[in-house]
Amino acid sequence: MEFTFPAIGIIHSCFKEKFGIPRQPGLAPLATAELELLAPYNDPTALDGLEGCSHIWVQFVFHANSRSEWKPKVKPPRLGGNKSLGVFATRSPTRPAPIGLSVVKLDGIVERDGKLLLQLSGIDMLDGTPVLDIKPYVPYVDLVPEAVNGFAAAAPQLIPVEFSAETTAFCDEYRQKTQIDLTGLIREILQQDPRPQYQQPEPERVYGMKLLDVDVRWQYRSNPAGLRILVCGIDPVVTM
Predict the structure, then answer these.
(1) What's the CA gap between 207 and 202, in Å, rounded?
(2) DSSP class of residue 2?
(3) Model pTM?
(4) Cα-based distances in Å from 80 to 49, 123, 141, 151, 190
């Protein structure tokens, strides 16, 4: 049995590539996006009452998933990429139907340049993500305090993130120009450790990701206190 669903909107996200996106929503509260509703779903009356909700569920498509066929078992990053679980016991994007579901903060609803936009934060979605549906978060039924997850019982341990003098200066100037806390956003993302867990951190290796309109680069460092991350470079994205 197959169904076809329309995309009601598209995500304009701070995340310009898959690498570095938090593995769950809410882990980087400063990560923002705008959900642009597409015609004919961009009717303001369709959102009547949503302004009273602090959070919403967003159902979306993993449009950048390069694997077209599903497997009954996958290797989730949380388990180091070396242990398999049943696909339906994970949130892997490689699924029979590549659909994601995230609860995010609704910061506002605006109309700008003829577009109807939902302003979101705490997101985990790639720029250009098609949205299938939105629903209000209902605390008295959606919050389950006694819920248990056997392999993800607690949040991963955070890694300290430090900035070089040059990247600190860049972030300060960026905030003055855009009012965006780039330092805070980068720290929230990198402290989750986006590195594939099966990779051993090598001091000479430089990792990088595109975030907003900048390229961010970092390295892993070890000291007696443990592993840390050093943000060693930030440059504007060069467009052709």
Answers:
(1) 10
(2) -
(3) 0.91
(4) 43, 23, 32, 12, 17
- What are the backbone dihedrals phi and psi of residue 160, each rounded to the nearest 5 degrees, phi first? -60, 140
Crossing angle, helix 182-190 and helix 165-178, to 10 degrees? Answer: 120
pLDDT at 81 over 70: no
Paired residues of 110 in beta bridges: 117
Which SS3 state, helix, strand or coil, does residue 107 take? strand
Q: Which of 166, 136, 125, 158 is nearest to 36 (CA)?
A: 125
Output 79 or 72, whichever has higher pLDDT. Answer: 72
Q: Is the bond into 224 cis (omega within 30 degrees of 0)?
A: no
pLDDT digits (tens, 9 = 90+) for 133-178: 999 999 999 999 998 887 777 777 899 999 999 999 999 999 999 9
Q: What is the pLDDT of residue 174?
A: 97
User: In the structure encoding, which two tokens stand for residue 32, read together?
Assistant: 């923002």
H helices present in 30-103, as ranges: none
Number of other residues whose CB lies within 10 A of the CB of residue 46: 14
Q: What residue spans of the chain are helical by DSSP H?
A: 139-142, 165-178, 182-190
Residue for token digits 């720029």? 127
